[in-house]
Amino acid sequence: MEKQEYILIKTLCVHYKIEISFIKELNNVGLIEIKRFENEEVIHEEKIGDLEKMIRLYHELDLNIEGIDVVFNLLQKEVQLKEQVKELQNRLRFYEDEL
Amino acid sequence: MDFVDYYKILGVSKGASDKEIKKAYRKLARKYHPDLNPDNKEAEKKFKEINEAHEVLSNPENREKYDKYGKDWMHGEEFEKARQQQSYQRQQYSGGAGGQGFSGSDFSDFFESMFGGAGGSSGRGAAQFKGQDLSASLELNLTEIYETHKKVLTLNGQKIRLTIPAGIENGQIIRIKGKGDEGMNGGPNGDLLIKFSIINNTKFKRDKENLYSTVHLDLYTALLGGEITVDTFDGKVKLKIAAETANDTKVKLKGKGFPVYKKERDFGDLIITYQIDIPTNLSAKEKELFKELQKLR
């Protein structure tokens, strides 16, 4: 585990002006994954984009944790469907070439 | 510059209470928020409009000014004075990884004229924000993506070195961290999203890592067997043809397909379909011999 890849939860709370309980709740529902590094709680830097999105949904749309969970699940499904459409379009192109 | 009807945007009457305005804004924000509508420019535009309307109508002072001078903003001397005195607060938004981003500077000209240019920032406005993600598209030939290669792109005057992995798919998007718009207040830069459009400049058809081609066989080779040379993506190979090969027979050349994305040492297969050509313009002798063959069956 490389230290520079992880960000301290404490730092995030100060930076985004959020309560640590908010991050813990996101962890409880599995939206983010809190890890321990040198006795400190951290999250992976790759998850910061998602966390920012969750904070915006929480503050700007008044969504609660369950609502954010639903939204993320649906957005994930949307990404999967888009991927499926892209694959089908490529496959269709394969057959269209024959016409 | 057109007058912007903020009441109409939020779908409320002029006499709407603060509570009604907030409720209308929340409802529309939930519908058009960029985080809930990734890659949707129309929703992004709509969200900017409702955000701007909310910025004005949720602030009693600004709402009063808007109600008083809104339609006559061009002639209001007092308004001009007021405009100079006030620099309006605004929020800046930006999408995170995978999100759509936009900034408050996208407020309408009407808003800029009435409430001034970018002033201080409100609430969380002083916080750092990630820059906007940028999108670009890149067209490549199928032959170019058979091997991983590097390419230098110039985007917005910026040179970007890009490694294009072999086997990339048509329509696939690659994210290059930090090459988007600059972050705000020291926030990180946005990302650059490059969408690949793959043009098939070969006679092979591609389905992910598998390639397909049709090879013509003359009737006699199909009937009696033999050896032919066929094209693969990276050269020619000799193939034995079994006697009595039927039309549409498929043979699989293992590992002669396209590289598997991000597994450059793994290749798909080349699937060849044999198409048997029936001889035409038969001579009298040939016809006679075929008739003899026919009698034997």
TrEMBL record, chain A:
The keyword Coiled coil applies. It comes from the Bacteria. Pfam families: MerR_2 (PF13591). Residues 34-98 form a coiled coil. Keywords: Coiled coil. This is MerR family transcriptional regulator.
TrEMBL record, chain B:
Pfam families: DnaJ, DnaJ_C. Keywords: Chaperone. One of its GO terms (biological process) is protein refolding. Residues 84-94 have a biased composition (Low complexity). GO terms for cellular component: cytoplasm. Residues 80-100 are annotated as: Disordered. SMART domains: DnaJ. One of its GO terms (molecular function) is unfolded protein binding. This is Molecular chaperone DnaJ. The lineage of its organism: Bacteria, Pseudomonadati, Bacteroidota, Flavobacteriia, Flavobacteriales.
